[in-house]
Amino acid sequence: MDLEPDLQFEYVRAMAQLGAPDPANSNAIQNFGASLVRFGTQEQTSRFLPEMLSHERLWAQCFSEPEAGSDLAGLRTRAEPVADTDLLRIFGQKVWTSRAQYASWCYLLARTSPIDRDARHAGISLLIVDLHQSGVEVRPIRQITGVDEFCEVFFDGAVASRDQVIGELGDGWRISTHTLGQERSTRLAARSLQLSESVAALAGLLTDHGEAPFTSASVPEELVAGYCDSVVVEALVRRNIALADQPDRLTVSAAMGKLTWSEAAQRQASDAVRLLGPELLDSAHRRWWVDLLGSRAYSIYAGTSEIQRNIIARAAGLPSARETPGAPS
Ligand SMILES: Cc1cc2nc3c(=O)[nH]c(=O)nc-3n(C[C@H](O)[C@H](O)[C@H](O)COP(=O)(O)OP(=O)(O)OC[C@H]3O[C@@H](n4cnc5c(N)ncnc54)[C@H](O)[C@@H]3O)c2cc1C
After folding, report:
1. DSSP symbols for 38-64
2. Which residue, judged by its Cα, is nearest atom 41 of ligand 1?
3. Within the chain, which residues score under 70 in pLDDT?
4. pTM given for the model
5. 20 to 30 A from 47, CA-CA: which of 17, 130, 188, 199?
6. Per-residue pLDDT tens digits for 85-118
7. Among residues 183, 234, 263, 323, which one is catalytic?
8. Whole-angstrom distance, CA of residue 276 vs CA of residue 280
9. Given the DSSP bridges, would you call strands 59-62 and 78-81 parallel, antiparallel or unpaired?
């Protein structure tokens, strides 16, 4: 919408207040879209952006692999040039790929040069790949929430043309870092605003069940803490959205926002269950127990909390968890 960061945030707030869900194409619009605008060619942006926004085609993020999650640079999926053509042929496996079963396109990280032990981030490229072609198999995985939100994706000879590579061959690491910065900032806007909405909903529910009006001494500590968390997270996310054009500062600041949000949202989900007690067994209150189960994933996706702490520690000149003598590995 070409809005200034503050207005963009207000738009997200209005949507959250109306209870609107995340856009079904959030993988594209909120994560990858800004990277496409920044690093893609004119032809790529005019080809892919309109159908991302219109939701004509959904997108998936194919980064993580069975042996490469936190250690993403260890990825093994490879894209090999096909002789005498402008095609790359892809072999490998991705995992935890959210909503891949509904997606037509993915943005995929693959090795286009063999791994160099001294420069593991080099030789990785970012490609747009059509998921509806032979050589691609998508297998959904059922989660504890009862839905199969994410999938395994197998590539066995699927192709992408050279004009579907974003930036230069071998420049994928830099571009994916930008995409992850978006995932840990813009993408968190709606989720951060849902924290205050949940505090209000929880207070409303307790009122309905005769536990309110509260006096200043009887407001449950959990509600006060939840409200304070929501203010802190909102401030962090708002600042991170404003840093969108400063990738170097955004990486660390977005790690702080993601870490703070994950912990606050997990705390809120378990506090809600404790406050509501047996009410949760009622299917009318499904939202709260689904939140509790789903919240286990908050400190894993978009980079685990340990990885966010490592990013912050490195920026502060401190050792990371795995470099700390005596730290559990
Ligand atoms: C709901 C959900 C949706 C997801 N959607 C997608 C998606 O759409 N696309 C996609 O590509 N991926 C997706 N992921 C994958 C996610 O990015 C990875 O799960 C995450 O990066 C962690 O990788 P891993 O699962 O391989 O765990 P591992 O990297 O094996 O980590 C295992 C444990 O070791 C810790 N650890 C690892 N390395 C270090 C270190 N250096 N220092 C300290 N501790 C460390 C981790 O913090 C974690 O606790 C999704 C995950 C979930 C849960």
Report:
1. HHS-HHHHHHHHHHHHTTSS-EEEE--
2. 322
3. 210-214, 216, 321-329
4. 0.92
5. 188
6. 999 999 999 999 999 999 999 999 999 998 888 8
7. 183
8. 6
9. unpaired
